[in-house]
Amino acid sequence: MKSQSNIKEVLAFLRLLGANNDRVWFKAHKEHTFDPLRSAWENDVERLIRLMAEWDEKARGLDVKQAVYRIYRDIRFSHDKRPYKQYFSAVIGRGGRHCVSSGYYIHFEPDHLMLCGGVWWPAKDKLDALRRLIDAEPEEFAKLITDKRLAASGFGFEGETLKNVPKDYPKDHPLGEYLKRKEYLLVKHVDEDYFDCEDWVQRVNDDFKVLKPIHDFLDYVYDE
Questions:
Q1: What is the pTM for the complete model shown?
Q2: Which of its termini does the chain have fewer beta carbons within 10 Å around, N or C?
């Protein structure tokens, strides 16, 4: 099956939006440019959800409207008054874009395209629980992060970390690098060529599948 959305067209529109981020310009281009691009993108995300639901229950029953982010920015309390986001993105996980457990994220932005998976900025109690889990199951976690399929996938841990290992753990803890993390997020940066294929939806599905074992491990603290 062929993907419906043309990523080059999406990125071309987003570049124009970046140079004309105001309501007058957007209104003039909404019906004939934005709406068709957005519709095709949502159809592709919907199919991605269906494909992922075959191997990850977190995607089952997820409505595409829950998964995709709106183009409109909430500028009520922001110094940045640009009314529109300059990217398309979606979260596939429990609750869609409101997911608080381990989830999958896709981000389309000019010169900043990426796939992500894991836990974004967990609440303190969950972060503490994730660290305890890694400490309690070091062999299992080490096996997951050194898996050859993960190494070949292009995903790597990113995000903010503490300067030192948390005080509850030995300074020389063999997994100290991971105990210092403030979030457990794996990122794969890609370029436009990644999507220059007949079916990028299938390609993303296959790449996300590599992350499932780590997701299952991290979700242990959310399934308790």
A1: 0.94
A2: C
